[in-house]
Design goal:
Blueprint lengths: L4 H5 L18 E5 L5 E5 H29 L3 H8 L2 E3 L10 E3 L3 H7 L4 E3 L7 E3 H11 L4 E3 L6 E3 H7 L7 E3 L7 E3 L3 H7 L5 E3 L6 E3 L3 H7 L4 E2 L10 E2 L3 H8 L4 E3 L10 E3 H10 L1 H29 L6 E6 L2 H10 L5 E2 L3 E2 L6 E7 L10 E9 L15 E5 L12 E5 L20 E8 H5 L9 E7 L8
Antiparallel strand pairs: 1-2, 3-4, 5-6, 7-8, 9-10, 11-12, 13-14, 15-16, 17-25, 18-20, 19-20, 20-21, 21-24, 22-23, 22-25
Bound molecules: zinc ion (7 copies).
One zinc ion binds next to loops.
Keywords: Cytoplasm, Metal-binding, Repeat, Zinc, Zinc-finger
InterPro entries: MATH/TRAF_dom, TNF_rcpt-assoc_TRAF_met, TRAF-like, TRAF1-6_MATH_dom, Znf_RING/FYVE/PHD, Znf_TRAF
Pfam family, one: TRAF-mep_MATH
Amino acid sequence: MVRSLTHWTKTLSFPARISPNKQREPTLTPTPSNNSVASLTTSNNLNNNNNEINSMMNQSQTSLLSEVNQIYSDPESEKAIMSSVVYCIHHKEGCKWSDELRKLKGHLNTCKHDALPCTSKCGAQIPRVLMEDHLKYTCPQRRARCEFCNKEFSGHGLENHIGVCGYEPIYCENKCGVKIHRRHLSQHKSGECSKRLIPCRYCAKEFVADTLAAHNVKCGRVPVVCPNRCDINLLAREELDTHLKEECTISVLACTFKDAGCRFKGPRFSMENHLEENCRQHLNMMCNVVTKQQHQIASLKNALSRLSLNYSGTLIWKISDFSAKLVEAKNKEGMELVSPPFFTSQYGYKLQASLFPNGNGAGEDTHISVYIKILPGEYDALLRWPFAHSVSFTLFDQSSCPEKACNIVESFIPDPTWKNFQRPSKEPDSLGFGFPKFVSHEMLKKRHFLKDDTMFIRVKVDPSKIVAV
Ligand SMILES: [Zn+2]
Ligand SMILES: [Zn+2]
Ligand SMILES: [Zn+2]
Ligand SMILES: [Zn+2]
Ligand SMILES: [Zn+2]
Ligand SMILES: [Zn+2]
Ligand SMILES: [Zn+2]
């Protein structure tokens, strides 16, 4: 029974067959064909198969080779095969050995790349060349000392010990930069580490240890003494301001009547005394303040009324509750309504209209009378006298339909000889000039001169003839 070479060359390949005529250059390798005749193949195949061979040879080099012997009972073939030149099965790992196949077994006994069971019987197969390292560093059965605590362990024990050895120097996890034996780490972290969190003893907030001193410099709860050395012992720094402003008996204060002019300054405890003893002075100061303020108010009022003054030369005068005013006028002789003053221009004549609801002079009891008078104004010195501009009075018909409205208008041009239109003195003329019989009471009831018991009278100075500066 001849087993095909194909069967086992799947696991065992050969390097080059070295021709006696050629140099020993292992470029070609015999590979059996189906009919058991070796054909040639490249040495790459050898390499590809080496791992497989390796494992196989490790397990059963001897049996394999003897099997080869059995297979090739033909002594000629066997001789030829066994004389084939092959590489060591560990060629790829670096073994340079190459010789006849028959010598491979002998070589493998000494090949430093060949694997042997660990001599410490840990069960691993270790290449001969690595055995020393294995026994020293990786074999679980080895005896080894921890480099930090110097205790002896089995290899396995050491692996468990690494990472927990109390004598291994390690960096503090808080990144404080300290390297310390593991067994001292927790003590370091709780008591010494510059990056541990500790609460401020005053405000109880937590701070990294090495920033606590900086915090204490500004912590609001740090107790301080009052700079005035008053009878308060200690108070929190953040309360000091309020204490000095509102409580400290030694703080020097200004008298509460400072704004009224009192210049007294003294410690808080003396203030009550000062106030009691200076009642009259303080009262006088307050009176002065009030007087001053009254003047200010008056001048403000003045300025305000200036802003709201009418400088247009035209006054629209609204007279409401007319019937009540008429009744009053009938009972009270000479009752006169006066309009707000108005100006012909900003620097012009100051004028005022007046109205007698129950008439005046020729119109008494039957008509309403209207007049205009000239009041003393600020710019009179620069204006032309006598006043020479035409003045018109208009009573508006308040009909809701403006086209149908029919106003009553009266106007006059002052005669230069009328004394009412000379420059007024400080005591102005009491009457002025106008129309005693402006509109009769009868006429007032007609049309819509009165609406909602209100009348509107326009007093207009013809602006075209105004001569102002
Ligand atoms: Zn070898
Ligand atoms: Zn071992
Ligand atoms: Zn240790
Ligand atoms: Zn630390
Ligand atoms: Zn604090
Ligand atoms: Zn104080
Ligand atoms: Zn005072």
